[in-house]
Amino acid sequence: MDAGLDAGELSAWAAGALAAIRGEGDAVVPCGSCTACCESSQFVHIAPDELDALAHIPRELLFPAPRAPRGHVLMGYDEHGRCPMLVDGACTIYEHRPRTCRTYDCRVFPATGLDAGDDGKPAIAARAARWTFSYDADDTHVQHDAMRAAAAFVRDRAGDLPAGAVSVTATQRAVMALELHDLFIGEQHGHRVVREPAIDAVSVVLTRRSRPT
Q: I need a surface site. Which of 1, 57, 89, 179 has the fewest CB within 10 A?
């Protein structure tokens, strides 16, 4: 069995991951020599404002992103499922990599209880399964439970949420659950507890989340 990996303290990780999602910095992931996300047949989205990344990727590797505004593109992968910018196990444009790569963090799977294997990404799923979070306080586990409750809610109540609001892939749903999890934390007798929010409260956040900026 593979040895476990220290995912860090849960609350600190969540704060950093959410900041990266908001565009306030890069995700800081202790990848080591792992390149699972670069070798798992993933399309990399690049927005038109990412001029540095676009300048370092051959134009012939890019194509328009379906259902996205003009100027948004995707970079595909080779016949082995590898990112074409990965050479000899290393990213050749690491300092200029797209925002998608800068914010990707496979720890979102153990945080939310979702499985990258559901997206047909066994290498990412294997890596994600090794992460173990620590808690800095007795009730930090409540935050972890809330993330998993949010993921289950999105899965089980998808039909009650705004049309098109629920993401398709496990990765997208995991990020969504992370963004929603605060709604699933309440207080009872002076202690934080997991609660189920009103469907309208979740719908408002999802509608705001999907609105173009």
A: 1
- Nearest to 194, CA basis, from 158, 147, 126: 147
Which tens digits make up the pLDDT trace of 49-71?
999 999 999 999 999 999 889 99
- Residue 53 in any domain: the answer is no
Distances (CA, A) of 36 to 78, 83, 103: 14, 10, 15
167 falls within a domain: yes
What predicted TM-score, i.e. pTM, was given to this entire model? Answer: 0.90
Tell me which residue range forms the domain holding 160.
131-210
Q: How many domains does the chain have?
A: 1
Q: How far, in Å, CA of 133 to CA of 46, rounded?
A: 30
- How many Å apart are CA 175 and CA 156, to the nearest integer? 16
Nearest to 145 by CA among 199, 192, 188: 192
